[in-house]
Write a structure and sequence with these properties.
The chain is of the alpha/beta class. The chain is built from 9 helices and 5 strands; from the N terminus they run αααβαβαβααααββ. A 5-stranded mixed β-sheet has the order 2-1-3-4-5, sandwiched between helices. Strand 4 and strand 5 form a beta hairpin. The structure holds zinc ion. The site of zinc ion has 7 residues, from helix 6. Zinc ion (ZN) binds next to helix 6.
Length: 198
């Protein structure tokens, strides 16, 4: 697998970028990961990076975007924070990623069994973590905390984050409107390794 150059990356359309991520996840799930020479990729990216995707995912140790989408060095701008919450710093990262680095897609990637989601549902508040759970509160549903409820809250929260990005970033909203980027939500299953795009 090659490392993207400016030319090869610039040719990728937003929909192709989505296809690359879907194909990469299918390789991951089927244990058909591409054999990459990471040291070679390190050398190839030493003078510049031309990633095609931006992924906002949780800090959870099981949700590394490069691994679950089977990508190499220089392919993904990875933004990671518990509960894949959106704040001003995250928005700033996304705007830089799309406006300056020119990635073609933003994926908001939630996942099953997310500790931040269950913490928000069980009203866990401790120190600065409450700043994370507060951002998940609008997506909470009433009822006994079951795995099904947690999955629903997780999906609500992904949709909420996508809407938040659209409403709070004029820049990203217009790039999306002009067809220069795709902004999509997705759910990663830690049980199966599959990413479902919502
Ligand atoms: Zn999580």
């Amino acid at each position: 697998m090659w490392t993207h150059t400016k030319e090869s990356r610039d040719r990728i359309t937003p929909h192709q970028a989505l296809t690359y991520l879907k194909e990469g996840n299918a390789r991951f799930v089927n244990n058909l990961r591409i054999s990459r020479d990471l040291l070679k990729q390190m050398n190839q990216t030493s003078t510049g990076q031309y990633p095609f995707a931006t992924v906002l995912s949780c800090m959870d140790s099981r949700t590394s975007a490069e691994l679950i989408f089977d990508q190499g060095l220089g392919d993904i701008l990875s933004i990671r924070i518990a509960g894949n919450v959106v704040n001003n710093d995250v928005l700033g990262c996304m705007e830089y990623a799309c406006d300056v680095v020119q990635t073609k897609i933003i994926v908001v990637l939630g996942h099953t069994q997310c500790g931040a989601i269950s913490s928000a549902c069980s009203d866990y508040k401790s120190g600065h973590f409450s700043s994370i759970t507060r951002k998940i509160k609008p997506s909470i549903e009433e009822g006994p905390i079951t795995p099904e409820l947690l999955d629903r809250v997780c999906i609500n929260h992904i949709h909420h984050s996508v809407r938040l990005i659209r409403s709070r970033s004029t820049l990203l909203r217009s790039l999306e409107k002009e067809g220069r980027i795709l902004l999509v939500g997705a759910l990663y299953s830690v049980e199966t390794g599959t990413v479902i795009f919502l």
